[in-house]
Amino acid sequence: MEKKKKKLIHKLKNRYRIVLINDTTFEEKISFSLTPMNVFVGFSSFLVFFICIISWLIIFTPLREYIPGYSDPDMKKDLAKTLYKIDSLEKALMDKDAYYKNILHIVTDNSK
Question: Does pTM surpass 0.70?
């Protein structure tokens, strides 16, 4: 077990070189000397940074309204007011409908 651990640490510390070469002139453009540990740490740091940026965007911008359960508090108040108005309008409509039915009933009974 100890041997495997040392072997893994040794592999993570080995240096590798990445070289970008111009294909026509064979001129070396860019050269990087990296270890697998550097790549892992860099990728992990980028991932944490990316997750933090996405979280910040969702929490502090209107994007949160697109996530179920994160609705705007003002929208909930407006919804309650709208539901109250709808209920009032339905009641008024039923009252007027009953009134017109009574008028129609009176007119049709008198004409017979």
Answer: no
pLDDT tens figures, 8-36 = 888 888 999 999 999 999 999 999 999 99
DSSP state of 69: T
Distance CA(86)–CA(106), nearest Å, equals 30
DSSP class of residue 20 equals E
* Phi, psi dihedrals of residue 28, rounded to the nearest 5°: -75, 120
Give dist(CA 98, CA 87) in Å, integer.
Answer: 17
Cα–Cα distance, 31 to 17 (Å, whole number):
7
Domain boundaries, the chain: 1-70, 72-112
- Name the β-bridge partners of 16: 34
CA distance linking residue 39 with residue 45, whole number of Å: 10
